[in-house]
């Protein structure tokens, strides 16, 4: 999916914090903001308006 080199330089556009890959859901997630940014055709869509809230873990 996303190469580690690219993942190391990407940041959440909302909080500027780190993002991590979620290959199962084809997204990059920000734990600080609890948002998931979609990855389409191996291109991360790092727009706040395109992000979806992470489901709460119980």
pLDDT < 50 runs, ≥5 residues: none
Helix content: 10-25%
Strand-pairing-aware structural class: mainly beta
Q: How widely separated are the two ends?
A: 28 Å
Q: Shape from CA axes? A: globular
| Main sheet: strands, sense, barrel | 5 strands, antiparallel
Q: From N to C, what is the helix and strand string?
A: HEEEEE
β-strand amount: 25-35%
Tally the helices.
1
Overall average pLDDT:
92
Compute the number of strand runs: 5
Spatial extent as radius of gyration? 10 Å
Task: Tell me about this structure.
With 58 residues, the chain is mainly β. The protein is 10% helix and 29% strand. The protein has one helix and five strands; from the N terminus they run αβββββ. The protein has one helix spanning 4-9, and strands spanning 20-22, 27-30, 35-40, 43-44, 52-53. Strands 1, 2, 3, 4 and 5 form a five-stranded antiparallel sheet that branches.
List the helices and strands and how they pair.
Layout: H1 4-9, E1 20-22, E2 27-30, E3 35-40, E4 43-44, E5 52-53
Antiparallel strand pairs: 1-2, 2-3, 3-4, 3-5
């Amino acid at each position: 999916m996303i190469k580690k080199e690219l993942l190391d330089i990407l940041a959440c556009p909302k909080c500027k914090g780190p993002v991590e890959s979620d290959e199962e859901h084809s997204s990059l997630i920000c734990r600080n903001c609890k948002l998931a940014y979609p990855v389409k055709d191996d291109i991360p869509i790092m727009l706040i308006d395109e992000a979806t809230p992470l489901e709460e873990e119980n």
